Amino acid sequence: MLRRNIRMRREYLYRKSLEGKERLLYEKKRKIREALQEGKPIPTELRNEEAALRREIDLEDENTAVPRTHIDDEYAHAAEKDPKILLTTSRDPSAPLQQFVKELSYVFPNAQRMNRGGQVISEIIESCRAHDYTDVVLVHEHRGVPDGLIVCHLPYGPTAYFGLLNVVTRHEIKDKKAIGTMPEAYPHLIFDNFSTKLGERTANILKYLFPVPKPDTKRIVTFSNQSDYVSFRHHIYEKHGGPKSIELKEIGPRFELRLYQIKLGTVDQAEAQIEWVIRPYMNTSKKRKFLSD
Amino acid sequence: MADSKDAGEEALRRLIATFQPSFLAPNPALSETSRAASRHLFSALRPFCPKSPLDQLLIDGFDAEQIWQQIDLQSQPLLSSLRRQVKHFAKNPEEISKLKVVPLGKKVEKEQREDWVEESDGFDEELEDDEEGEGKGGEEGMDIEDEDEEQGRESDNEEESEGEDEEEKGEDGEAGDGGIEDKFLKIDELAKYLEKEEENFEKAEEDTRGKKGADDEENTEDDDDDDEEEEEEEEESDEDAEFGFGGEDAAGDMENARYEDFFGDKGKYSKKMKAQLHQESEGSDEEDDDMKFKKQNKGTASTHQKQLEKIHSKIEEMEKANLEPKTWTMQGEVTAAKRPKNSALEVDLDFEHNVRPAPVITEEVTASIEDMIKKRITEGNFNDVQKAPKLPSKVPREVKELDDNKSKKGLAEIYEQEYVEKEDPTSAPLSFRDEQKQQASVLFKKLGLKLDALAHFSFAPKPVIEDMSVQINVPALAMEEIAPVAVSDAAMLAPEEVFEGKGDIKEETELTKEERKRRRANKKRRFKAAAVKRMGKKVQEGALPNQMNG
């Protein structure tokens, strides 16, 4: 089992390392294809390899035309298997944080909450791999207020680090009757204004935490991006009458997410490659938006 | 003498007893009474001022101003001597107890002071109300009222102020209760203030004149908002300064003042000369004003002088601040070690933040998000996870069906068929399953034909001609695993089909010499045996044809 894991990881890394070459090849093929379509002469730097590349172009089908990336490897099985999530906290959580984590375990379908106790992160990851979990979510706090969220996709998946702001939990709402119980149907998802590549990547990371829903569920989970702050909202809707009247009722916690790092490894791998990290002290960072245009 | 004295006392009593507002209207009888009372008081005080030129207050034919000046002539040296006495008592409190309290009229050397204080106490209590409201007003009203009234008033005021001074300069225990103290006048404060003034005055006698002037100025500045009593004190303190400076001389030193009095040694030039000059001029102005007993402004200095004063004090402060080391907030780069503990918490630090501030979730923001959600719902445009098309990962296994009918083929034919398959995989016959399929399709075609006939052959599909084709028992689709977890390298043949043998298999190169010899010997033996058998066969065969032919 261990040797199998090691081998699989090495294969994954090898394929990741090949990506650069594959991408080059893909670019060359693309240039040739364009030149052929437009009837222009083939660019001179590709003259030598042109024959071989042309043959490959003829032979490729839709699977091989697009180069496979490590992202596809990471989420290869995501569409087939339902995700299985483990939720836990930092060490020695306060009561409000525990309540928040309990709420989150209802938000994500097929999620399991676990007490942290004194476990080390590497232990947690090992046991999750062994039990076939797809994701681990850690929640951190500051004096009772949840302030950090770490989403780690499991086989060797990416880890996304978010900061939480403006957290409003269901426990804070005093009127228990008004809010009712949390429905457990698989929700529809809405991702709004994730237009850059990094935005797509983040949206994917969050998307694959949820399973495939039924088309007629009434439960909606929304991630709406506004200048790099992603708002999480959780609603139930009802359609009264015909004329496009929709009534939204907000349930569930509400918070803002702020992405500050994506790492290409699991949480316990400290030396994993950093895909993207926030740069708050750069002078132009105030003017730039990374998740949208 | 006694008569006059009695008359005087009588007058005083009558004056005290008069109805207060009657002083407002001119009244010759009242003025006579007040003059008599003043004279009486003057005479009473006469023994205490040995140097006074006047033995008696001259009231006949003199107007208010002149009487006032006579009183002043007597009171000024009196005040200074009183001061000295008070200081003496302050230093030696035990002497106070030696003083005896004597009722009005008795003249004992030491006790006179006490009387005096008592008397003035009583007097003060009566006239406190007047003075209180109108201390300044009274003097200002001088112009308004008649001369007679003025005289009476002035004398009253003068006496009262004297009395107050005495009271104030008396022991602290002598604080008048009830009528004298109210929210403006606090006797204790007055006493303390006077003592402070005297201390300053003492210092000034040793220091230069300028410093004293500065102190006075400051005092006057400080007391700007105080009430009239303290202003009076100031005046008196200034007056005393005058007097003190000139020693015990009578009022009249102002004319004899010299440069040295003001500026000390001519040779010395200190930094603050200019400032002092200004202060001096202010001081002298003030003294002149005092001497004229005009109370125009609070500090009795012109506005310009006061402004200049303020500016100079500010300049002094700023110069002093510049000489000291700066506060840590002004020092450029400051580490935590260089500033006092927790001082950064008190200061309002200002940074330029390079991150966009966190969004405040207002009603509008929530409404906009909800609108977007509603729009998406109506469109049905969700970003759900799409289910991937499920590719069959394995070929549907062939179900081995057991046919319990007797096999139509003989065993030899079965073996023959297997051999042919092994040699040439393409020549495999139809499997049981395929046979069934074929039968089913034939049946269906028949049925179809009949149905078409019923439908009058409006559509007659081309009849399918079946030709004999060999179907191979090999999976039609060999699927590639999406994520080959393990590539099975199991061969098509079972191990025993690959090799049949027993024992330890050794290769040519592994054999020892004996082994090789043994093998060769075995081979030879077998070859020989085979050769013999062949020979035997040939002989037999050779014999038969001979027999058949022959």
From TrEMBL, chain A:
GO terms for cellular component: Mpp10 complex; nucleoplasm; small-subunit processome. It holds the Pfam family Brix. It comes from the Eukaryota. Signal peptide: none annotated. One of its GO terms (biological process) is ribosomal small subunit biogenesis. InterPro entries: Brix (IPR007109), IMP4/RPF1 (IPR044281). One of its GO terms (molecular function) is rRNA primary transcript binding. Residues 83-268 form the Brix domain. This is Brix domain-containing protein. It comes from Arachis hypogaea.
